[in-house]
Backbone:
């Protein structure tokens, strides 16, 4: 089974190679490609990221995605080590879909078996997360710590299923994200972290249901949380949106 974004990326790449699009041309929007190929915009977004990592296209502030000259692109914007396109890489939205399915089921299972010490530990993690976000807001730290708190909370729930295989599956999904050049590339586009406060409220809601041992409500709360994560990451990385700040994006790339 080949990845959907790779098939779409290869079709766009073939159009460029056949000369339908040449250096400096603006690519059709994500919406146009999504309609033409009959796929969701998230798949087209992933295909664009793949082509960007391969140096075939680049994104310009508030104006779209352009075909680049492979030679000059390599000179002015060399791909950082380890950032090469990887045929094994899972698309960021594909990964989030998998997390939504698996982690919702995990939350349902955890609600039935979670122990009191585990509930206390999750509460502690949320308190730490809240503190971490305050530090970021005051410029005292980077978002990295909030990421670690997010991971610890989700994996803490997986642990509460008392099922080692479910815990390993959740861990694998999170490790995948850390290893993925596409995920890092998508994340580099996003420099506004105010949405993290919304996610913290989601986490509070999940813990509330776990505490009540309401399996169905816990499942639903996790599903909604990951739906919010998908929607936010999709909106904040939208290069078709004229409000998208390509300047910040370039800076993030240069780091
Ligand atoms: Zn979360």
Residues:
């Amino acid at each position: 089974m080949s990845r959907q974004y790779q098939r779409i990326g290869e079709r766009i790449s073939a159009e460029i190679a056949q000369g339908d699009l040449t250096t400096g041309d603006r690519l059709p929007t994500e919406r146009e490609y999504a309609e033409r190929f009959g796929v969701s915009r998230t798949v087209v977004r992933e295909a664009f990221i793949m082509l960007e990592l391969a140096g075939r296209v680049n994104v310009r502030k508030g104006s779209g995605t352009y075909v680049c000259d492979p030679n000059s692109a390599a000179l002015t914007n060399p791909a950082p080590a380890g950032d090469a396109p990887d045929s094994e890489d899972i698309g960021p939205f594909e990964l989030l879909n998998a997390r939504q399915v698996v982690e919702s089921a995990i939350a349902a299972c955890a609600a039935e078996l979670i122990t009191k010490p585990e509930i206390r530990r999750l509460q502690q993690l949320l308190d730490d997360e809240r503190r971490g976000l305050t530090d970021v807001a005051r410029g005292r730290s980077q978002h990295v710590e909030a990421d670690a708190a997010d991971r610890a909370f989700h994996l803490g729930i997986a642990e509460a299923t008392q099922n080692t295989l479910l815990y390993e599956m959740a861990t694998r999904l999170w490790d995948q994200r850390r290893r993925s050049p596409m995920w890092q590339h998508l994340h580099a586009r996003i420099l506004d972290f105010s949405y993290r406060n919304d996610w913290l409220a989601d986490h509070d809601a999940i813990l509330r249901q776990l505490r009540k041992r309401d399996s169905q409500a816990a499942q639903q709360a996790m599903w909604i949380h990951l739906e919010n994560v998908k929607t936010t990451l999709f909106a904040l990385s939208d290069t078709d949106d004229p409000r998208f700040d390509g300047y910040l994006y370039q800076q993030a790339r240069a780091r």
User: Anything to note?
Assistant: The first strand starts at residue 57 and ends at 60. The first helix runs from residue 4 to 17.
